[in-house]
Amino acid sequence: METKGKKEKAKERQEKRLQEISLLRTIPYSDHQRWWSSETVAVVTGANRGIGFEISRQLAGHGLTVILTSRDTSVGLEAANVLQEGGFNVDVHQLDVLDPPSIKEFCDWIQEKYGFIDILVNNAGVNYNLGNDNSVEFSKQVITTNYYGTKNMVKAMIPLMRPSTAGSRIVNVSSRLGKVNGRRNRIEDSALKEQLGDLDTLSEELIDRTLSTFLQQVEDGNWKSGGWPERFTDYSMSKLAVNAYTRLMAKELSNRPEGRKIYINCFCPGWVKTAMTGWAGNISAENGADTGVWLALLPDLAISGKFFAERREISF
Ligand code: NDP
Protein backbone atom coordinates (compact mmCIF):
# COMPACT_ATOMS: atom_id res chain seq x y z
CA MET A 1 0.00 0.00 0.00
CA GLU A 2 2.75 2.33 1.09
CA THR A 3 4.81 1.46 -2.01
CA LYS A 4 1.88 2.30 -4.22
CA GLY A 5 1.59 5.68 -2.50
CA LYS A 6 5.27 6.34 -3.12
CA LYS A 7 4.98 5.29 -6.74
CA GLU A 8 1.97 7.53 -7.27
CA LYS A 9 3.75 10.45 -5.68
CA ALA A 10 6.81 9.86 -7.87
CA LYS A 11 4.56 9.75 -10.92
CA GLU A 12 2.86 13.00 -9.90
CA ARG A 13 6.24 14.65 -9.37
CA GLN A 14 7.42 13.50 -12.80
CA GLU A 15 4.25 14.72 -14.47
CA LYS A 16 4.60 18.11 -12.77
CA ARG A 17 8.23 18.32 -13.91
CA LEU A 18 7.29 17.43 -17.49
CA GLN A 19 4.62 20.14 -17.43
CA GLU A 20 7.22 22.63 -16.20
CA ILE A 21 9.52 21.55 -19.01
CA SER A 22 6.90 21.95 -21.70
CA LEU A 23 6.27 25.43 -20.35
CA LEU A 24 10.01 26.18 -20.50
CA ARG A 25 10.04 24.94 -24.08
CA THR A 26 7.41 27.47 -25.12
CA ILE A 27 9.68 30.29 -23.93
CA PRO A 28 12.18 31.05 -26.69
CA TYR A 29 15.83 31.18 -25.62
CA SER A 30 16.47 34.90 -25.13
CA ASP A 31 18.52 36.69 -27.79
CA HIS A 32 21.52 37.48 -25.59
CA GLN A 33 21.83 33.80 -24.70
CA ARG A 34 21.76 32.54 -28.25
CA TRP A 35 25.35 31.68 -29.00
CA TRP A 36 24.38 29.81 -32.18
CA SER A 37 23.21 30.78 -35.66
CA SER A 38 22.20 29.04 -38.88
CA GLU A 39 25.94 28.49 -39.47
CA THR A 40 26.20 26.40 -36.30
CA VAL A 41 26.58 22.75 -37.26
CA ALA A 42 25.19 19.93 -35.11
CA VAL A 43 25.83 16.26 -35.84
CA VAL A 44 23.40 13.69 -34.44
CA THR A 45 24.15 9.95 -34.58
CA GLY A 46 21.41 7.34 -35.00
CA ALA A 47 19.11 10.16 -36.04
CA ASN A 48 16.86 8.34 -38.48
CA ARG A 49 14.30 7.57 -35.77
CA GLY A 50 13.35 7.84 -32.11
CA ILE A 51 15.11 10.26 -29.78
CA GLY A 52 17.88 11.04 -32.31
CA PHE A 53 15.34 12.13 -34.90
CA GLU A 54 13.60 14.33 -32.31
CA ILE A 55 16.87 15.90 -31.17
CA SER A 56 17.60 16.70 -34.83
CA ARG A 57 14.13 18.17 -35.34
CA GLN A 58 14.34 20.35 -32.24
CA LEU A 59 17.88 21.58 -32.93
CA ALA A 60 16.88 22.42 -36.51
CA GLY A 61 13.81 24.16 -35.07
CA HIS A 62 16.18 26.41 -33.09
CA GLY A 63 17.72 27.47 -36.41
CA LEU A 64 20.91 25.38 -36.47
CA THR A 65 22.23 23.38 -39.40
CA VAL A 66 21.71 19.74 -38.46
CA ILE A 67 23.54 16.79 -39.98
CA LEU A 68 21.19 13.86 -39.57
CA THR A 69 23.24 10.66 -39.70
CA SER A 70 22.00 7.13 -40.16
CA ARG A 71 23.74 3.81 -40.68
CA ASP A 72 21.30 3.00 -43.47
CA THR A 73 21.61 5.58 -46.25
CA SER A 74 18.09 5.33 -47.66
CA VAL A 75 16.39 5.40 -44.25
CA GLY A 76 18.47 8.47 -43.38
CA LEU A 77 17.48 10.22 -46.60
CA GLU A 78 13.81 9.54 -45.88
CA ALA A 79 14.06 10.88 -42.32
CA ALA A 80 15.96 13.97 -43.45
CA ASN A 81 13.40 14.54 -46.17
CA VAL A 82 10.63 14.80 -43.57
CA LEU A 83 12.54 17.60 -41.81
CA GLN A 84 13.61 19.31 -45.01
CA GLU A 85 9.98 19.40 -46.15
CA GLY A 86 9.18 21.11 -42.85
CA GLY A 87 11.55 23.90 -43.95
CA PHE A 88 14.41 22.90 -41.66
CA ASN A 89 18.07 23.22 -42.54
CA VAL A 90 18.95 19.53 -42.39
CA ASP A 91 21.68 17.71 -44.25
CA VAL A 92 22.12 13.95 -44.20
CA HIS A 93 25.00 11.48 -44.31
CA GLN A 94 25.60 7.79 -43.79
CA LEU A 95 27.35 6.95 -40.49
CA ASP A 96 27.82 3.67 -38.69
CA VAL A 97 29.51 4.46 -35.38
CA LEU A 98 31.12 1.01 -35.33
CA ASP A 99 32.53 1.08 -38.83
CA PRO A 100 35.93 2.85 -39.06
CA PRO A 101 35.74 3.42 -42.87
CA SER A 102 32.23 4.90 -42.45
CA ILE A 103 33.49 7.24 -39.68
CA LYS A 104 36.50 8.23 -41.77
CA GLU A 105 34.37 8.91 -44.83
CA PHE A 106 31.98 10.99 -42.70
CA CYS A 107 34.83 13.05 -41.23
CA ASP A 108 36.28 13.72 -44.69
CA TRP A 109 32.85 14.81 -45.93
CA ILE A 110 32.33 17.14 -42.95
CA GLN A 111 35.76 18.65 -43.40
CA GLU A 112 35.22 19.28 -47.07
CA LYS A 113 31.63 20.52 -46.90
CA TYR A 114 31.49 22.35 -43.54
CA GLY A 115 35.06 22.60 -42.27
CA PHE A 116 33.98 22.26 -38.64
CA ILE A 117 31.16 21.16 -36.40
CA ASP A 118 29.93 22.83 -33.20
CA ILE A 119 27.82 20.13 -31.58
CA LEU A 120 28.03 16.34 -31.49
CA VAL A 121 25.13 14.36 -30.06
CA ASN A 122 26.07 10.72 -29.46
CA ASN A 123 22.64 9.17 -29.58
CA ALA A 124 23.11 5.90 -31.53
CA GLY A 125 22.42 2.96 -29.25
CA VAL A 126 20.99 -0.53 -28.92
CA ASN A 127 19.28 -2.58 -26.23
CA TYR A 128 17.89 -6.09 -26.59
CA ASN A 129 15.99 -6.52 -23.33
CA LEU A 130 12.41 -5.56 -22.53
CA GLY A 131 10.40 -5.69 -19.31
CA ASN A 132 11.97 -8.13 -16.87
CA ASP A 133 14.18 -9.85 -19.47
CA ASN A 134 17.86 -9.92 -18.74
CA SER A 135 19.51 -11.79 -21.56
CA VAL A 136 23.18 -11.09 -22.25
CA GLU A 137 23.08 -12.79 -25.65
CA PHE A 138 23.91 -9.52 -27.41
CA SER A 139 26.05 -7.99 -24.68
CA LYS A 140 29.05 -7.54 -26.93
CA GLN A 141 27.04 -5.59 -29.47
CA VAL A 142 25.33 -3.52 -26.78
CA ILE A 143 28.61 -2.54 -25.14
CA THR A 144 30.39 -2.01 -28.43
CA THR A 145 27.67 0.21 -29.88
CA ASN A 146 26.73 2.22 -26.81
CA TYR A 147 30.18 2.77 -25.34
CA TYR A 148 32.81 2.14 -28.01
CA GLY A 149 30.60 3.76 -30.68
CA THR A 150 30.36 6.88 -28.51
CA LYS A 151 34.08 6.84 -27.87
CA ASN A 152 34.85 6.37 -31.59
CA MET A 153 32.80 9.44 -32.42
CA VAL A 154 34.23 11.61 -29.65
CA LYS A 155 37.76 10.79 -30.80
CA ALA A 156 36.96 11.30 -34.48
CA MET A 157 35.07 14.57 -34.03
CA ILE A 158 37.27 16.43 -31.54
CA PRO A 159 39.73 17.52 -34.26
CA LEU A 160 36.75 18.84 -36.24
CA MET A 161 35.31 20.93 -33.42
CA ARG A 162 35.20 24.60 -34.39
CA PRO A 163 37.44 26.94 -32.41
CA SER A 164 35.13 29.61 -30.95
CA THR A 165 34.57 31.74 -27.88
CA ALA A 166 31.25 29.98 -27.27
CA GLY A 167 32.98 26.60 -27.21
CA SER A 168 31.74 23.41 -28.83
CA ARG A 169 29.62 20.80 -27.14
CA ILE A 170 29.30 17.04 -26.93
CA VAL A 171 26.14 15.49 -25.54
CA ASN A 172 26.05 11.76 -24.80
CA VAL A 173 22.68 10.07 -24.54
CA SER A 174 22.94 7.83 -21.50
CA SER A 175 20.64 6.30 -18.91
CA ARG A 176 19.96 6.32 -15.19
CA LEU A 177 20.49 2.55 -15.41
CA GLY A 178 24.17 3.36 -15.75
CA LYS A 179 24.50 5.11 -12.40
CA VAL A 180 27.52 3.68 -10.56
CA ASN A 181 25.73 4.37 -7.29
CA GLY A 182 22.23 3.33 -8.33
CA ARG A 183 20.14 2.17 -5.38
CA ARG A 184 19.20 -1.24 -6.77
CA ASN A 185 21.00 -1.35 -10.08
CA ARG A 186 24.63 -1.06 -9.10
CA ILE A 187 28.07 -2.64 -9.14
CA GLU A 188 28.52 -4.64 -5.93
CA ASP A 189 32.33 -4.49 -5.75
CA SER A 190 32.78 -1.41 -3.57
CA ALA A 191 36.47 -0.95 -4.44
CA LEU A 192 35.69 -0.96 -8.17
CA LYS A 193 32.70 1.31 -7.61
CA GLU A 194 34.89 3.76 -5.76
CA GLN A 195 37.58 3.71 -8.45
CA LEU A 196 35.02 4.29 -11.18
CA GLY A 197 33.36 7.07 -9.23
CA ASP A 198 36.54 8.96 -8.33
CA LEU A 199 38.05 11.23 -10.98
CA ASP A 200 41.51 10.71 -9.51
CA THR A 201 41.39 6.95 -10.14
CA LEU A 202 39.08 6.89 -13.17
CA SER A 203 40.82 6.13 -16.47
CA GLU A 204 39.89 4.91 -19.92
CA GLU A 205 41.88 1.78 -19.18
CA LEU A 206 39.80 1.14 -16.03
CA ILE A 207 36.52 1.57 -17.91
CA ASP A 208 37.66 -0.71 -20.75
CA ARG A 209 39.03 -3.30 -18.33
CA THR A 210 35.77 -3.36 -16.34
CA LEU A 211 33.82 -3.98 -19.54
CA SER A 212 36.14 -6.72 -20.72
CA THR A 213 35.91 -8.44 -17.32
CA PHE A 214 32.13 -8.42 -17.66
CA LEU A 215 32.24 -9.65 -21.27
CA GLN A 216 34.70 -12.38 -20.34
CA GLN A 217 32.32 -13.56 -17.60
CA VAL A 218 29.48 -13.57 -20.13
CA GLU A 219 31.62 -15.77 -22.35
CA ASP A 220 32.53 -18.05 -19.43
CA GLY A 221 28.89 -18.23 -18.31
CA ASN A 222 29.53 -16.95 -14.76
CA TRP A 223 28.46 -13.28 -15.10
CA LYS A 224 25.42 -13.77 -12.82
CA SER A 225 27.62 -14.00 -9.76
CA GLY A 226 29.84 -11.12 -10.90
CA GLY A 227 28.04 -8.44 -8.85
CA TRP A 228 26.98 -6.45 -11.92
CA PRO A 229 23.81 -4.32 -12.14
CA GLU A 230 20.73 -6.52 -11.95
CA ARG A 231 18.53 -4.88 -14.58
CA PHE A 232 19.40 -4.99 -18.27
CA THR A 233 22.93 -5.85 -17.14
CA ASP A 234 24.73 -5.41 -20.47
CA TYR A 235 22.90 -2.17 -21.27
CA SER A 236 23.45 -0.81 -17.75
CA MET A 237 27.17 -1.59 -18.02
CA SER A 238 27.37 0.15 -21.41
CA LYS A 239 25.74 3.31 -20.06
CA LEU A 240 27.77 3.20 -16.86
CA ALA A 241 30.80 3.30 -19.15
CA VAL A 242 29.35 6.22 -21.14
CA ASN A 243 28.78 8.15 -17.91
CA ALA A 244 32.27 7.48 -16.61
CA TYR A 245 33.80 8.36 -19.98
CA THR A 246 31.86 11.65 -20.06
CA ARG A 247 33.33 12.67 -16.70
CA LEU A 248 36.80 11.59 -17.74
CA MET A 249 36.68 13.44 -21.06
CA ALA A 250 35.39 16.60 -19.36
CA LYS A 251 38.49 16.53 -17.18
CA GLU A 252 40.79 15.97 -20.15
CA LEU A 253 39.09 18.59 -22.30
CA SER A 254 39.18 21.20 -19.54
CA ASN A 255 42.89 21.67 -20.33
CA ARG A 256 42.13 23.10 -23.75
CA PRO A 257 42.97 26.79 -24.23
CA GLU A 258 40.37 29.56 -24.42
CA GLY A 259 38.81 29.69 -27.86
CA ARG A 260 39.14 25.93 -28.26
CA LYS A 261 36.98 24.78 -25.37
CA ILE A 262 34.80 21.69 -25.67
CA TYR A 263 32.09 20.95 -23.10
CA ILE A 264 30.84 17.41 -22.67
CA ASN A 265 27.82 16.21 -20.69
CA CYS A 266 25.43 13.28 -20.67
CA PHE A 267 21.76 12.83 -19.90
CA CYS A 268 19.02 10.28 -19.34
CA PRO A 269 16.02 10.91 -21.60
CA GLY A 270 13.65 9.01 -19.29
CA TRP A 271 11.68 5.95 -20.32
CA VAL A 272 10.70 6.87 -23.84
CA LYS A 273 8.15 5.44 -26.27
CA THR A 274 10.48 4.35 -29.05
CA ALA A 275 11.35 1.12 -30.85
CA MET A 276 13.99 0.50 -28.18
CA THR A 277 11.40 0.11 -25.41
CA GLY A 278 8.90 -1.65 -27.69
CA TRP A 279 6.94 1.66 -27.46
CA ALA A 280 6.31 0.91 -23.79
CA GLY A 281 7.90 4.06 -22.34
CA ASN A 282 5.95 6.66 -20.39
CA ILE A 283 7.04 9.78 -22.29
CA SER A 284 7.16 10.83 -25.93
CA ALA A 285 10.36 11.08 -27.96
CA GLU A 286 9.73 14.83 -28.04
CA ASN A 287 9.92 15.06 -24.24
CA GLY A 288 12.77 12.56 -24.09
CA ALA A 289 14.84 14.65 -26.49
CA ASP A 290 14.32 17.90 -24.60
CA THR A 291 17.14 17.66 -22.05
CA GLY A 292 19.63 16.77 -24.80
CA VAL A 293 18.67 19.79 -26.88
CA TRP A 294 18.74 22.05 -23.84
CA LEU A 295 22.22 20.74 -22.93
CA ALA A 296 23.52 21.16 -26.48
CA LEU A 297 22.41 24.81 -26.52
CA LEU A 298 23.25 25.70 -22.94
CA PRO A 299 24.75 29.17 -22.77
CA ASP A 300 26.41 28.51 -19.40
CA LEU A 301 29.99 27.61 -20.21
CA ALA A 302 30.87 26.33 -16.77
CA ILE A 303 28.90 23.12 -17.23
CA SER A 304 30.93 20.07 -18.27
CA GLY A 305 31.24 16.49 -17.07
CA LYS A 306 27.73 16.44 -15.63
CA PHE A 307 24.80 14.05 -15.82
CA PHE A 308 21.25 15.40 -16.29
CA ALA A 309 17.67 14.17 -16.34
CA GLU A 310 14.66 16.37 -17.00
CA ARG A 311 16.94 19.42 -17.19
CA ARG A 312 18.29 18.83 -13.69
CA GLU A 313 21.72 17.64 -12.68
CA ILE A 314 21.71 14.18 -11.12
CA SER A 315 24.53 12.20 -9.55
CA PHE A 316 26.60 9.64 -11.43
P1 NDP B 1 15.83 3.60 -31.28
O1 NDP B 1 16.03 2.14 -31.30
O2 NDP B 1 14.54 4.16 -31.76
O3 NDP B 1 17.00 4.33 -32.07
C1 NDP B 1 18.33 3.93 -31.97
C2 NDP B 1 19.08 4.56 -33.11
O4 NDP B 1 20.47 4.17 -33.00
C3 NDP B 1 18.60 4.09 -34.48
O5 NDP B 1 18.65 5.17 -35.36
C4 NDP B 1 19.64 3.05 -34.86
O6 NDP B 1 19.79 2.85 -36.24
C5 NDP B 1 20.87 3.72 -34.28
N1 NDP B 1 22.03 2.83 -34.24
C6 NDP B 1 22.16 1.62 -33.66
N2 NDP B 1 23.38 1.11 -33.90
C7 NDP B 1 24.04 2.03 -34.65
C8 NDP B 1 25.33 2.10 -35.24
N3 NDP B 1 26.22 1.09 -35.11
N4 NDP B 1 25.66 3.20 -35.95
C9 NDP B 1 24.79 4.20 -36.09
N5 NDP B 1 23.55 4.19 -35.60
C10 NDP B 1 23.18 3.12 -34.88
O7 NDP B 1 16.10 4.00 -29.77
P2 NDP B 1 15.91 5.36 -28.93
O8 NDP B 1 15.61 6.49 -29.81
O9 NDP B 1 15.03 5.05 -27.81
O10 NDP B 1 17.38 5.48 -28.33
C11 NDP B 1 18.26 6.56 -28.60
C12 NDP B 1 19.25 6.67 -27.46
O11 NDP B 1 18.58 6.92 -26.23
C13 NDP B 1 20.06 5.38 -27.24
O12 NDP B 1 21.39 5.73 -26.94
C14 NDP B 1 19.39 4.77 -26.02
O13 NDP B 1 20.25 3.91 -25.31
C15 NDP B 1 19.04 6.02 -25.24
N6 NDP B 1 18.00 5.80 -24.24
C16 NDP B 1 16.74 5.45 -24.61
C17 NDP B 1 15.77 5.27 -23.64
C18 NDP B 1 14.36 4.92 -23.99
O14 NDP B 1 13.55 4.78 -23.04
N7 NDP B 1 13.99 4.80 -25.26
C19 NDP B 1 16.08 5.40 -22.20
C20 NDP B 1 17.44 5.78 -21.93
C21 NDP B 1 18.35 5.97 -22.92
P3 NDP B 1 18.88 1.78 -37.06
O15 NDP B 1 17.55 2.44 -37.28
O16 NDP B 1 19.66 1.55 -38.29
O17 NDP B 1 18.76 0.56 -36.19
From TrEMBL:
Gene3D superfamilies: NAD(P)-binding Rossmann-like Domain. It holds the Pfam family adh_short. It is an enzyme of class 1 (oxidoreductase). It comes from the Eukaryota. InterPro entries: CBR1-like, NAD(P)-bd_dom_sf, Sc_DH/Rdtase_CS, SDR_fam. PROSITE patterns: ADH_SHORT. Keywords: NADP, Oxidoreductase. GO terms for cellular component: membrane. GO terms for molecular function: oxidoreductase activity, acting on the CH-OH group of donors, NAD or NADP as acceptor. Its EC number is 1.1.1.-. Belongs to the short-chain dehydrogenases/reductases (SDR) family. This is Short-chain dehydrogenase/reductase. It comes from Dipteronia dyeriana.
